């Protein structure tokens, strides 16, 4: 602080210059104003005045211990905050942190998401095709027979009808998201599966920003280039299907 004072600089300029070097560990502007006033009054020494009471070594060790305890409670505290709590300057705290406790201030590494198991499952969307068979049951009146009063009720076997329809479905942990009936005579190829995925995306606004994890099997339609390209464009993650 004395050097910039001798250069004729004012406390705000002194503070800004040192803050660029030490960041949050720089002394406060009030501290600069205090020392500026002391130098202007004729003070030469930059060291602490002699004090009565406990030896400096014992006091320093107490401060180091207190700084360590405060950091154990909150690793995000700044030098300035720690200095205010233990009664020393931010610069002294910085020395304690780096030279006595051998600590470094490391910045967080940003990652896309920190997911819990529930978050992960809620992002999974499963897609698949399945046959849905039609049934043509008789009405209750049509199946009634005239039998003796005390005889057991007759049993009817439900028979599968000849009609079946392919459905393309997408569903998540909450239920069905899209149930698409494939017209008769239509083959579920890459183009058709892509159109179903696009229909699903249009039905759920904001889906592209939700980080979808898609689970579907290794059917040829799912592995087509146009399908893979579309999912990559959307940023959807495709889970490897269990073998």
Overview of the structural elements:
With 243 residues, the chain is α/β, with parallel strands linked by helices. It folds into two domains: 99 residues, no CATH class; 103 residues, Ribonuclease H-like superfamily/Ribonuclease H (Nucleotidyltransferase, domain 5, 2-Layer Sandwich). It contains nine helices and five strands; from the N terminus they run αααααααβββαβαβ. It has a five-stranded mixed beta sheet with strand order 3-2-1-4-5. Helix 9 links the parallel strand 4 and strand 5. Helix 2 crosses helix 3 and helix 5 packs across helix 6. The longest helix has 18 residues. The model has no long low-confidence stretch (mean pLDDT 77).
What is the gist of this entry?
With 243 residues, the protein is α/β, with parallel strands linked by helices. It is built from nine helices and five strands.
Show the helix and strand layout:
Elements: H1 2-6, H2 11-22, H3 29-40, H4 56-73, H5 79-86, H6 90-100, H7 117-123, E1 124-135, E2 160-172, E3 175-181, H8 190-203, E4 213-215, H9 225-234, E5 237-238
Parallel strand pairs: 1-4, 4-5
Antiparallel strand pairs: 1-2, 2-3
Proportion in helices: 25-40%
How much of the sequence is in beta strands?
Answer: 15-25%
Mean pLDDT: 77
Question: What name does CATH use for the topology of the largest domain?
Answer: Nucleotidyltransferase, domain 5
């Amino acid at each position: 602080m004395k050097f910039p004072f001798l250069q004729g600089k004012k406390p705000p300029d002194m503070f800004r210059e040192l803050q660029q070097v030490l960041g949050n560990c720089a002394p406060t502007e009030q501290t600069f104003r205090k020392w500026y006033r002391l130098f202007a009054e004729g003070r030469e020494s930059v060291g602490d005045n002699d004090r009565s009471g406990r030896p400096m070594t014992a006091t320093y060790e107490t401060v180091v211990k207190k700084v360590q305890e405060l950091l154990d409670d909150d690793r995000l505290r700044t030098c300035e905050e720690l200095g205010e709590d233990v009664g020393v300057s931010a610069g002294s705290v910085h020395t304690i942190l780096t030279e006595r406790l051998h600590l470094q201030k490391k910045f967080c590494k940003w990652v896309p998401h920190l997911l819990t198991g529930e978050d992960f499952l809620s992002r999974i969307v499963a897609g698949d095709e399945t046959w849905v068979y039609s049934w043509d049951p008789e009405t209750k009146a049509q199946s009634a027979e005239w039998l003796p009063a005390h005889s057991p009720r007759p049993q009817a076997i439900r028979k599968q009808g000849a009609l079946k329809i392919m459905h393309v479905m997408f569903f998540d942990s909450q239920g069905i998201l899209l149930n698409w009936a494939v017209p008769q005579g239509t083959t579920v190829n890459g183009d058709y599966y892509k159109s179903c995925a696009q229909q699903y995306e249009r039905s759920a606004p904001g889906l592209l920003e939700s980080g979808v994890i898609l689970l579907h099997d290794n059917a040829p339609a799912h592995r087509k280039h146009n399908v893979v390209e579309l999912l990559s464009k959307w940023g959807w993650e495709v889970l490897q299907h269990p073998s």
